[in-house]
């Protein structure tokens, strides 16, 4: 039995979001194919995701110096440890995001800033950093209003490429993408959505079996 971490980063209701609709179709198909796997859903706009702020850095410094932490520092560091341990414990990952301003939602970046932690998901060596999350795999589901997979838009795509890069940095090199792009085109919206849902269901079956 595998643990699947399903991470969403969109404050909208599911029916108003292309990425969330495609993600739900993926998850439903996955569960039908492999009902024994454990699915953990993490909505980054509903859960407590601490930012890397002064309390966090000051708290880490205090821990090194064996100085007592404030209540707020301890609260944030404990939550960060929970988030990181949950991430490390997963066997498979499904990330669902929209593209915002050519990149990713701020809460997704905040989440990555927490889980990309030396000693937990990567380590430094004499040859440079090495990812620790080997033999794991991930799916990135994303919706984009424009076209960024070809043409001039490719130079402005900092979302899916970032996800693949940072996951690879942590050792997760088996990463596939399901992209619904051009959704701002009202005439083709339904077709784009249905094509992405069809691809998501097909991909989910393969993802569940392997």
What would your notes on this structure say?
This protein is α/β, with parallel strands linked by helices and 210 residues long. It has a single domain (3-209), classed as 3-Layer(aba) Sandwich (Rossmann fold), CATH 3.40.50.360. The chain contains 6 helices and 7 strands, in the order E-H-E-H-H-E-H-E-E-E-H-E-H. The chain has helices spanning 18-33, 54-65, 71-89, 106-115, 160-169, 189-209; strands at 3-8, 38-43, 92-98, 122-125, 128-131, 137-144, 174-181. The chain has a 5-stranded parallel sheet, with helices on both faces. Helix 1 links the parallel strand 1 and strand 2. Helix 1 packs parallel to helix 6 (189-209) and helix 2 (54-65) crosses helix 3 (71-89). The longest helix has 21 residues, at 189-209. The radius of gyration is 18 Å and the shape is globular. The N and C termini lie close together (11 Å).
């Amino acid at each position: 039995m595998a643990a699947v971490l399903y991470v969403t980063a969109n404050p909208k209701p599911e029916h108003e979001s292309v990425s969330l609709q495609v993600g739900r179709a993926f998850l439903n198909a996955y569960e039908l194919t492999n009902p024994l796997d454990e699915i953990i859903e993490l909505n980054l706009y509903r859960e407590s995701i601490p930012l890397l702020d002064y309390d966090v850095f000051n708290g880490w410094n205090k821990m090194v110096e064996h100085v007592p932490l404030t209540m707020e520092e301890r609260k944030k560091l404990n939550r960060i440890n929970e988030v990181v341990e949950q991430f490390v414990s997963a066997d498979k990952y499904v990330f669902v995001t929209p593209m915002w301003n050519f990149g990713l939602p701020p809460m997704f970046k905040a989440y990555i800033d927490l889980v990309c932690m030396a000693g937990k998901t990567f380590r430094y060596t004499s040859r440079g950093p090495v990812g620790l999350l080997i033999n794991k795999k991930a799916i990135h589901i994303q919706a984009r209003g424009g076209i960024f997979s070809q043409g001039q838009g490719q130079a402005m795509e900092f979302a899916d490429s970032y996800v693949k890069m940072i996951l690879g940095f942590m050792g997760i090199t088996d990463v596939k993408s399901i992209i619904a792009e051009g959704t701002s085109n009202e005439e083709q919206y339904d077709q784009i959505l249905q094509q992405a849902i069809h691809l998501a269901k097909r991909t989910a079956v393969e993802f569940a079996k392997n």
